[in-house]
Amino acid sequence: MTAQVNQTSGHTVWSEAYKIQGLTKIGAASNYQNKDVTLDQKRKTQHGTYYRFAVNGKTTGWLDTRAFKLYDAVEYNKAVNLDAKIVNTTGNAFWTAPYFSTGSKLVTSASTYAGKDVKLLREAKTVRGTYYQVQIDGKMIGWLDKKAFKFYSTIKSEEVVNRPAVISTVAGHAVWSKPYEVVGTTRVNAASVYQNNQVQLLKKAVTDRGTYYQFSVGGKTIGWLDQRAFDIYDNVEYNKSVQLTGTVTNVVGNAAWTEPYKSLGTKLINQATAYQNKQVSIIREAKTTRSTYYQFQIDGKTIGWLDKRVFTNIK
């Protein structure tokens, strides 16, 4: 264990625990006032409890436990890379090491940096709490209790996408300059401003808070919005004319649509069961990221689009 000698009044350092036979006086405890020491033995006698301590690795003597301020052991101290804002400053302060650990000294009150965006470089845990080493504008400040921070989201992955969508679910959502709660993000507008707008999705980001898309309207990049606000459609890779015939057979779980399923603007026409066992003409083929679809006619009348897997006897 580590400790600091800080209550020296009335205490003496001895060669053994006080009143043990053969002990000799080493010196006044005040000679070691405010010294950081290592405790390696503890002994209880009828007169009290005593620690043997060392200064700078050298065994010095025995001293009453009441003379020491015991430091907290650090359970772990690991590198991190987090962004946060200092928001809860009451009762918190910066220290040169995790609070109440060996060598920890006051740097300044947390209120000195209230409202600041900070970078967290290390995380340490003691029996008392969890602490972060803080850097502001590239300058190392010190260690601060975890409870002082509001943590920003971390982007776990980000990728370029190119998909059409419609903003449909706007309640509780807003558009942001970056994925929500990422450091530096600012509010652009309420999502309701873009309700029912057809948009293009440009990027997808996954954070520890959710999944967000960057989108554009009419070619203009607007911002980032929670994925739950969008109806996302499939891209059509091709849509070409064909001249085929077939039979509507595998109807379970399938339906006819005005466009290839889940492409922009598609609407339900009917369940595929309405056309079961019908001989049809297939006039167009389209492929999306989801599947391949056929546009079909019955008795010369164009009906809609069905998944290719619905048809048999295709010629």
UniProtKB/TrEMBL annotation:
PROSITE patterns: GW. InterPro entries: GW_dom, GW_dom_sf. Gene3D superfamilies: 2.30.30.170. The keyword Membrane does not apply. Residues 1-73, 76-154, 157-235, 238-315 form the GW domain. It comes from the Bacteria. The keyword Signal applies. SUPFAM superfamilies: Prokaryotic SH3-related domain. Keywords: Signal. This is Putative autolysin (Amidase).
